[in-house]
Specification:
Blueprint (H helix, E strand, L loop, with lengths): L6 E6 L1 H14 L5 E5 L10 E4 L2 H4 L8 H11 L12 E7 L4 H15 L4 E7 L6 H17 L2 E6 L10 H24 L8 H8 L4 E10 L3 H11 L10 E10 L5 H15 L3 E8 L1 H4 L2 E10 L42 E2 L2 E2 L4 H4 L7
Parallel strand pairs: 1-2, 1-4, 2-3, 4-5, 5-6, 6-7, 8-9
Antiparallel strand pairs: 7-10, 8-10, 11-12
The chain binds guanosine-5'-triphosphate (GTP) and magnesium ion.
Protein backbone atom coordinates (compact mmCIF):
# COMPACT_ATOMS: atom_id res chain seq x y z
CA UNK A 1 0.00 0.00 0.00
CA UNK A 2 1.30 3.43 -0.96
CA UNK A 3 0.80 5.58 2.15
CA UNK A 4 2.69 8.52 0.65
CA UNK A 5 0.16 9.17 -2.09
CA UNK A 6 -2.24 12.09 -1.60
CA UNK A 7 -5.03 10.35 -3.51
CA UNK A 8 -7.03 7.56 -1.90
CA UNK A 9 -9.29 5.03 -3.60
CA UNK A 10 -12.35 4.08 -1.55
CA UNK A 11 -14.58 1.17 -2.58
CA UNK A 12 -18.07 1.40 -1.02
CA UNK A 13 -20.60 -1.44 -0.90
CA UNK A 14 -20.13 -4.98 -2.16
CA UNK A 15 -19.81 -4.27 -5.88
CA UNK A 16 -17.87 -1.06 -5.08
CA UNK A 17 -15.33 -3.11 -3.10
CA UNK A 18 -15.05 -5.55 -6.03
CA UNK A 19 -14.39 -2.67 -8.43
CA UNK A 20 -11.75 -1.15 -6.11
CA UNK A 21 -10.02 -4.53 -5.80
CA UNK A 22 -10.14 -4.80 -9.61
CA UNK A 23 -8.35 -1.44 -9.84
CA UNK A 24 -5.66 -2.63 -7.45
CA UNK A 25 -5.10 -5.82 -9.45
CA UNK A 26 -5.00 -4.00 -12.78
CA UNK A 27 -2.73 -1.22 -11.50
CA UNK A 28 -0.08 -3.76 -10.66
CA UNK A 29 1.74 -1.62 -8.09
CA UNK A 30 1.16 -0.22 -4.64
CA UNK A 31 -2.02 1.76 -4.39
CA UNK A 32 -3.51 3.58 -1.42
CA UNK A 33 -6.98 2.16 -1.01
CA UNK A 34 -9.65 1.29 1.53
CA UNK A 35 -12.70 -0.93 1.24
CA UNK A 36 -15.88 -0.12 3.19
CA UNK A 37 -19.00 -2.25 3.36
CA UNK A 38 -21.74 -3.32 5.73
CA UNK A 39 -21.04 -6.88 4.58
CA UNK A 40 -18.04 -8.44 6.34
CA UNK A 41 -17.56 -10.81 3.39
CA UNK A 42 -16.15 -7.93 1.31
CA UNK A 43 -12.90 -7.95 3.32
CA UNK A 44 -10.02 -9.29 1.23
CA UNK A 45 -6.47 -10.21 2.14
CA UNK A 46 -4.02 -7.35 1.87
CA UNK A 47 -6.67 -4.60 1.81
CA UNK A 48 -7.67 -2.19 4.55
CA UNK A 49 -11.30 -2.93 5.33
CA UNK A 50 -13.78 -0.83 7.29
CA UNK A 51 -16.93 -2.61 8.44
CA UNK A 52 -19.84 -0.17 8.45
CA UNK A 53 -22.62 -0.40 11.01
CA UNK A 54 -21.00 -3.18 13.03
CA UNK A 55 -23.47 -3.45 15.92
CA UNK A 56 -26.43 -2.36 13.86
CA UNK A 57 -26.04 -4.85 11.01
CA UNK A 58 -23.59 -7.43 12.40
CA UNK A 59 -21.65 -7.58 9.14
CA UNK A 60 -24.56 -8.93 7.11
CA UNK A 61 -25.12 -6.07 4.65
CA UNK A 62 -27.93 -3.53 4.38
CA UNK A 63 -30.32 -5.81 2.48
CA UNK A 64 -31.00 -3.23 -0.23
CA UNK A 65 -32.23 -0.63 2.26
CA UNK A 66 -30.65 2.77 1.63
CA UNK A 67 -31.69 4.22 4.98
CA UNK A 68 -30.09 1.29 6.73
CA UNK A 69 -26.89 1.72 4.66
CA UNK A 70 -26.88 5.38 5.49
CA UNK A 71 -27.35 4.90 9.22
CA UNK A 72 -24.66 2.23 9.26
CA UNK A 73 -22.25 4.66 7.63
CA UNK A 74 -23.19 7.39 10.08
CA UNK A 75 -22.26 4.99 12.91
CA UNK A 76 -18.87 4.07 11.49
CA UNK A 77 -17.66 6.66 9.02
CA UNK A 78 -15.26 8.27 11.48
CA UNK A 79 -13.16 5.10 11.36
CA UNK A 80 -12.07 6.29 7.91
CA UNK A 81 -10.16 9.12 9.54
CA UNK A 82 -7.20 6.96 10.48
CA UNK A 83 -6.61 6.35 6.74
CA UNK A 84 -6.78 9.98 5.66
CA UNK A 85 -3.40 11.28 6.77
CA UNK A 86 -2.09 13.54 3.97
CA UNK A 87 -4.99 12.68 1.63
CA UNK A 88 -6.03 15.59 -0.65
CA UNK A 89 -8.54 13.78 -2.87
CA UNK A 90 -10.65 10.65 -2.48
CA UNK A 91 -11.91 8.70 -5.48
CA UNK A 92 -14.95 6.63 -4.52
CA UNK A 93 -16.04 3.68 -6.63
CA UNK A 94 -19.46 2.27 -5.94
CA UNK A 95 -22.51 0.65 -7.48
CA UNK A 96 -25.96 2.10 -6.86
CA UNK A 97 -28.99 -0.13 -6.51
CA UNK A 98 -28.35 -1.77 -3.12
CA UNK A 99 -28.43 -0.18 0.32
CA UNK A 100 -24.77 0.39 1.12
CA UNK A 101 -23.39 1.73 -2.15
CA UNK A 102 -25.94 4.56 -2.25
CA UNK A 103 -26.41 5.25 1.45
CA UNK A 104 -22.82 4.99 2.62
CA UNK A 105 -21.34 6.84 -0.36
CA UNK A 106 -23.46 9.85 0.49
CA UNK A 107 -22.31 9.78 4.12
CA UNK A 108 -18.68 9.28 3.08
CA UNK A 109 -18.78 12.33 0.79
CA UNK A 110 -20.32 14.45 3.52
CA UNK A 111 -17.78 13.30 6.08
CA UNK A 112 -14.89 13.97 3.71
CA UNK A 113 -16.26 17.44 3.00
CA UNK A 114 -16.26 18.15 6.72
CA UNK A 115 -12.55 17.30 6.67
CA UNK A 116 -11.91 19.57 3.65
CA UNK A 117 -11.27 16.62 1.32
CA UNK A 118 -13.19 16.62 -1.98
CA UNK A 119 -14.39 13.37 -3.49
CA UNK A 120 -14.81 12.25 -7.07
CA UNK A 121 -17.38 9.46 -7.32
CA UNK A 122 -17.63 6.80 -10.03
CA UNK A 123 -21.02 5.16 -9.51
CA UNK A 124 -22.65 2.55 -11.70
CA UNK A 125 -26.43 2.59 -12.09
CA UNK A 126 -28.27 -0.75 -12.24
CA UNK A 127 -28.86 -2.91 -15.30
CA UNK A 128 -32.38 -2.52 -16.64
CA UNK A 129 -32.99 -6.24 -16.01
CA UNK A 130 -32.50 -5.68 -12.26
CA UNK A 131 -35.96 -4.15 -12.02
CA UNK A 132 -37.67 -1.06 -10.74
CA UNK A 133 -36.80 -1.36 -7.02
CA UNK A 134 -33.08 -1.13 -7.66
CA UNK A 135 -33.53 1.62 -10.23
CA UNK A 136 -35.57 3.57 -7.69
CA UNK A 137 -32.92 3.01 -5.03
CA UNK A 138 -30.35 4.47 -7.40
CA UNK A 139 -32.48 7.40 -8.53
CA UNK A 140 -33.26 8.27 -4.91
CA UNK A 141 -29.65 9.10 -4.06
CA UNK A 142 -28.13 10.28 -7.32
CA UNK A 143 -28.70 14.00 -6.93
CA UNK A 144 -27.75 13.90 -3.24
CA UNK A 145 -24.45 12.22 -4.07
CA UNK A 146 -23.86 14.82 -6.79
CA UNK A 147 -24.49 17.57 -4.28
CA UNK A 148 -22.13 16.08 -1.71
CA UNK A 149 -19.26 15.18 -4.07
CA UNK A 150 -16.99 17.46 -6.09
CA UNK A 151 -18.02 15.57 -9.23
CA UNK A 152 -19.90 12.33 -9.78
CA UNK A 153 -19.58 10.17 -12.87
CA UNK A 154 -22.64 7.97 -13.26
CA UNK A 155 -21.97 4.98 -15.44
CA UNK A 156 -25.06 3.01 -16.55
CA UNK A 157 -24.14 -0.68 -16.41
CA UNK A 158 -26.19 -1.32 -19.55
CA UNK A 159 -23.75 0.87 -21.47
CA UNK A 160 -20.63 -0.86 -20.18
CA UNK A 161 -21.17 -4.35 -21.47
CA UNK A 162 -21.71 -4.20 -25.24
CA UNK A 163 -23.39 -7.21 -26.79
CA UNK A 164 -23.09 -9.65 -23.90
CA UNK A 165 -26.12 -11.81 -23.17
CA UNK A 166 -25.03 -13.98 -20.25
CA UNK A 167 -25.73 -12.37 -16.90
CA UNK A 168 -22.57 -13.56 -15.12
CA UNK A 169 -20.43 -12.37 -17.98
CA UNK A 170 -22.24 -9.01 -18.10
CA UNK A 171 -21.52 -8.42 -14.39
CA UNK A 172 -17.88 -9.45 -14.77
CA UNK A 173 -17.36 -7.33 -17.84
CA UNK A 174 -18.95 -4.30 -16.19
CA UNK A 175 -16.62 -4.57 -13.19
CA UNK A 176 -13.60 -5.06 -15.45
CA UNK A 177 -14.50 -2.13 -17.69
CA UNK A 178 -15.05 0.34 -14.89
CA UNK A 179 -12.04 -0.89 -12.94
CA UNK A 180 -9.97 -0.61 -16.13
CA UNK A 181 -11.06 3.01 -16.63
CA UNK A 182 -10.29 4.01 -13.07
CA UNK A 183 -6.94 2.21 -13.31
CA UNK A 184 -5.96 4.31 -16.33
CA UNK A 185 -6.91 7.43 -14.40
CA UNK A 186 -4.73 6.18 -11.54
CA UNK A 187 -1.79 5.69 -13.87
CA UNK A 188 -2.11 9.26 -15.10
CA UNK A 189 -1.71 10.47 -11.54
CA UNK A 190 0.74 7.96 -10.12
CA UNK A 191 2.92 7.13 -13.14
CA UNK A 192 3.05 10.39 -15.05
CA UNK A 193 4.85 10.83 -18.35
CA UNK A 194 6.07 14.00 -20.06
CA UNK A 195 2.84 15.88 -19.43
CA UNK A 196 1.98 15.52 -15.77
CA UNK A 197 -1.32 15.54 -13.98
CA UNK A 198 -1.22 16.21 -10.28
CA UNK A 199 -3.80 15.86 -7.58
CA UNK A 200 -4.12 19.61 -7.02
CA UNK A 201 -4.95 20.08 -10.69
CA UNK A 202 -7.66 17.41 -10.53
CA UNK A 203 -9.12 19.10 -7.46
CA UNK A 204 -9.25 22.31 -9.46
CA UNK A 205 -10.85 20.70 -12.53
CA UNK A 206 -13.49 18.92 -10.46
CA UNK A 207 -14.42 21.80 -8.18
CA UNK A 208 -17.49 23.81 -9.13
CA UNK A 209 -18.68 20.97 -11.32
CA UNK A 210 -21.23 18.45 -10.10
CA UNK A 211 -21.65 15.83 -12.75
CA UNK A 212 -19.16 14.39 -15.17
CA UNK A 213 -18.98 12.05 -18.13
CA UNK A 214 -16.21 9.59 -18.59
CA UNK A 215 -15.02 7.24 -21.32
CA UNK A 216 -11.96 5.28 -22.33
CA UNK A 217 -10.98 3.91 -25.70
CA UNK A 218 -8.05 1.78 -26.76
CA UNK A 219 -6.68 1.52 -30.29
CA UNK A 220 -3.63 0.21 -32.11
CA UNK A 221 -2.05 0.13 -35.55
CA UNK A 222 -2.01 2.75 -38.28
CA UNK A 223 -4.15 5.80 -37.65
CA UNK A 224 -4.65 4.84 -34.00
CA UNK A 225 -4.98 8.48 -32.90
CA UNK A 226 -7.71 9.19 -35.47
CA UNK A 227 -9.48 5.96 -34.52
CA UNK A 228 -9.40 6.99 -30.87
CA UNK A 229 -10.93 10.40 -31.62
CA UNK A 230 -13.57 8.77 -33.80
CA UNK A 231 -14.54 6.27 -31.08
CA UNK A 232 -14.71 9.01 -28.46
CA UNK A 233 -17.04 11.07 -30.67
CA UNK A 234 -19.34 8.06 -30.96
CA UNK A 235 -19.13 7.01 -27.31
CA UNK A 236 -22.53 6.79 -25.70
CA UNK A 237 -20.91 7.50 -22.35
CA UNK A 238 -19.87 10.96 -23.48
CA UNK A 239 -23.15 11.84 -25.15
CA UNK A 240 -26.13 13.55 -23.53
CA UNK A 241 -24.57 16.35 -21.55
CA UNK A 242 -26.81 17.89 -18.94
CA UNK A 243 -24.90 21.16 -18.87
CA UNK A 244 -22.03 23.00 -20.55
CA UNK A 245 -18.61 21.39 -20.23
CA UNK A 246 -16.65 23.38 -17.69
CA UNK A 247 -13.42 21.52 -18.04
CA UNK A 248 -12.02 18.45 -19.72
CA UNK A 249 -9.22 16.15 -18.83
CA UNK A 250 -7.68 14.06 -21.57
CA UNK A 251 -5.14 11.39 -20.76
CA UNK A 252 -3.13 9.60 -23.43
CA UNK A 253 -1.38 6.40 -22.41
CA UNK A 254 0.98 4.63 -24.77
CA UNK A 255 4.40 3.04 -25.15
CA UNK A 256 7.61 4.90 -25.89
CA UNK A 257 6.53 5.21 -29.54
CA UNK A 258 3.86 7.83 -28.75
CA UNK A 259 4.17 10.65 -31.28
CA UNK A 260 3.76 14.32 -30.61
CA UNK A 261 1.48 14.55 -33.65
CA UNK A 262 -0.77 11.80 -32.21
CA UNK A 263 -1.13 13.65 -28.91
CA UNK A 264 -1.92 16.84 -30.82
CA UNK A 265 -4.58 15.14 -32.94
CA UNK A 266 -6.30 13.63 -29.91
CA UNK A 267 -6.16 16.87 -27.92
CA UNK A 268 -7.60 18.87 -30.85
CA UNK A 269 -10.31 16.26 -31.42
CA UNK A 270 -11.47 16.35 -27.79
CA UNK A 271 -11.28 20.15 -27.60
CA UNK A 272 -13.28 20.61 -30.80
CA UNK A 273 -15.89 18.04 -29.87
CA UNK A 274 -16.67 19.22 -26.35
CA UNK A 275 -15.55 22.89 -26.27
CA UNK A 276 -14.52 22.92 -22.60
CA UNK A 277 -13.70 26.25 -20.98
CA UNK A 278 -10.60 24.64 -19.46
CA UNK A 279 -8.64 21.77 -20.91
CA UNK A 280 -5.90 19.63 -19.48
CA UNK A 281 -3.75 17.03 -21.14
CA UNK A 282 -1.64 14.34 -19.50
CA UNK A 283 0.41 11.50 -20.92
CA UNK A 284 1.87 8.26 -19.67
CA UNK A 285 4.60 6.41 -21.52
CA UNK A 286 4.73 2.84 -20.32
CA UNK A 287 6.28 0.44 -22.79
CA UNK A 288 5.56 -2.65 -20.71
CA UNK A 289 1.82 -2.07 -20.50
CA UNK A 290 0.98 -0.23 -23.71
CA UNK A 291 3.52 -1.37 -26.29
CA UNK A 292 2.02 -0.57 -29.72
CA UNK A 293 -1.30 0.37 -28.15
CA UNK A 294 -2.89 3.65 -27.27
CA UNK A 295 -5.43 4.26 -24.51
CA UNK A 296 -7.27 7.55 -24.16
CA UNK A 297 -9.20 8.57 -21.05
CA UNK A 298 -11.57 11.51 -21.31
CA UNK A 299 -13.25 13.06 -18.28
CA UNK A 300 -15.67 15.90 -18.88
CA UNK A 301 -16.68 18.05 -15.93
CA UNK A 302 -20.04 19.70 -16.48
CA UNK A 303 -21.42 22.85 -15.00
CA UNK A 304 -24.67 21.82 -13.41
CA UNK A 305 -26.07 24.14 -10.77
CA UNK A 306 -26.19 22.73 -7.27
CA UNK A 307 -29.73 22.54 -6.03
CA UNK A 308 -30.51 25.53 -3.75
CA UNK A 309 -32.09 23.26 -1.23
CA UNK A 310 -29.32 20.67 -0.99
CA UNK A 311 -28.64 19.71 2.57
CA UNK A 312 -31.89 20.97 4.10
CA UNK A 313 -31.94 19.12 7.41
CA UNK A 314 -34.86 17.25 8.84
CA UNK A 315 -35.35 14.12 6.74
CA UNK A 316 -33.22 11.05 6.47
CA UNK A 317 -33.19 11.23 2.68
CA UNK A 318 -33.25 15.03 2.52
CA UNK A 319 -36.05 15.16 -0.04
CA UNK A 320 -35.76 18.35 -1.95
CA UNK A 321 -37.81 21.28 -0.77
CA UNK A 322 -40.28 22.15 -3.53
CA UNK A 323 -42.43 25.23 -3.84
CA UNK A 324 -46.10 24.80 -3.05
CA UNK A 325 -48.28 26.97 -5.22
CA UNK A 326 -50.56 29.55 -3.66
CA UNK A 327 -50.37 31.71 -0.59
CA UNK A 328 -49.83 28.92 1.91
CA UNK A 329 -46.84 30.00 3.93
CA UNK A 330 -45.96 26.87 5.87
CA UNK A 331 -43.33 24.58 4.44
CA UNK A 332 -40.73 22.02 5.47
CA UNK A 333 -38.39 24.67 6.78
CA UNK A 334 -37.89 22.87 10.05
CA UNK A 335 -39.33 20.13 12.21
CA UNK A 336 -41.07 22.51 14.61
CA UNK A 337 -42.10 20.80 17.82
CA UNK A 338 -40.60 17.55 16.49
CA UNK A 339 -37.15 19.00 16.14
CA UNK A 340 -35.74 16.93 19.01
CA UNK A 341 -37.40 13.65 18.07
CA UNK A 342 -36.21 10.92 15.73
CA UNK A 343 -37.81 11.22 12.27
CA UNK A 344 -40.25 8.50 11.26
CA UNK A 345 -38.68 7.01 8.16
CA UNK A 346 -40.54 4.68 5.83
CA UNK A 347 -39.12 3.67 2.46
CA UNK A 348 -36.70 6.55 2.61
CA UNK A 349 -39.38 9.16 3.27
CA UNK A 350 -39.83 11.20 6.42
CA UNK A 351 -43.47 10.69 7.39
CA UNK A 352 -43.33 13.62 9.80
CA UNK A 353 -43.29 15.91 6.74
CA UNK A 354 -46.88 16.54 5.63
CA UNK A 355 -47.94 14.40 2.69
CA UNK A 356 -48.83 17.31 0.41
CA UNK A 357 -45.31 18.60 0.76
CA UNK A 358 -43.65 15.20 0.28
CA UNK A 359 -45.73 14.62 -2.84
CA UNK A 360 -45.38 18.22 -4.12
CA UNK A 361 -49.13 18.58 -4.38
CA UNK A 362 -50.12 22.13 -5.31
CA UNK A 363 -52.71 23.74 -3.10
CA UNK A 364 -54.55 26.67 -4.63
CA UNK A 365 -55.92 28.89 -1.95
N1 LIG B 1 -20.80 -5.25 -12.25
C1 LIG B 1 -21.32 -5.84 -11.19
N2 LIG B 1 -22.29 -5.20 -10.60
C2 LIG B 1 -22.83 -5.76 -9.55
C3 LIG B 1 -22.43 -7.01 -9.02
N3 LIG B 1 -23.19 -7.28 -7.98
C4 LIG B 1 -24.02 -6.24 -7.86
N4 LIG B 1 -23.80 -5.33 -8.82
C5 LIG B 1 -24.44 -4.03 -9.05
O1 LIG B 1 -24.29 -3.33 -7.87
C6 LIG B 1 -25.54 -2.86 -7.42
C7 LIG B 1 -25.48 -2.82 -5.92
O2 LIG B 1 -25.36 -4.14 -5.43
P1 LIG B 1 -24.44 -4.47 -4.19
O3 LIG B 1 -23.09 -3.89 -4.38
O4 LIG B 1 -24.54 -5.93 -3.99
O5 LIG B 1 -25.20 -3.69 -3.03
P2 LIG B 1 -24.56 -3.00 -1.76
O6 LIG B 1 -24.16 -1.61 -2.10
O7 LIG B 1 -23.53 -3.90 -1.18
O8 LIG B 1 -25.82 -2.87 -0.79
P3 LIG B 1 -26.41 -3.96 0.24
O9 LIG B 1 -25.98 -5.30 -0.24
O10 LIG B 1 -27.87 -3.72 0.20
O11 LIG B 1 -25.81 -3.64 1.56
C8 LIG B 1 -26.54 -3.84 -8.02
O12 LIG B 1 -27.80 -3.25 -8.16
C9 LIG B 1 -25.90 -4.14 -9.35
O13 LIG B 1 -26.25 -3.14 -10.29
C10 LIG B 1 -21.37 -7.68 -9.65
O14 LIG B 1 -20.96 -8.78 -9.27
N5 LIG B 1 -20.86 -7.06 -10.75
MG1 LIG C 1 -23.80 -5.77 -0.17
Amino acid sequence: MSESSSILLLGVGTAGCAIASGVRRAFGGPIRYVLADTDAASAVDGATFTLLGGDRLSGRGAGGDIVSGRLAAEDSIKSLDEHLEGVRLVVIVTALGGGTGGGATLEACKHLNSRGIPSIVFATTPFRFEGEDRQRNARGVMSMIEDASATTFFVPLDKLIGEVDRMDEAMRRAVDTLAGGVTLFWRLVEKPGYLRLDVERIRHLASGSRRGRFAIVTTQGNGRAEQAVDSLMRSELLAAASGPTKSALCGVLAGEDLLLSEVGRIADGVRNAFSPSAFDLATVNDEDTFSGRLAVVVMLFETVAKKDDAGVPGTAMNPKRRKVKGALTIGPTGRGRFKNSEPTIWNGEDLDVPTFIRRSISIDL
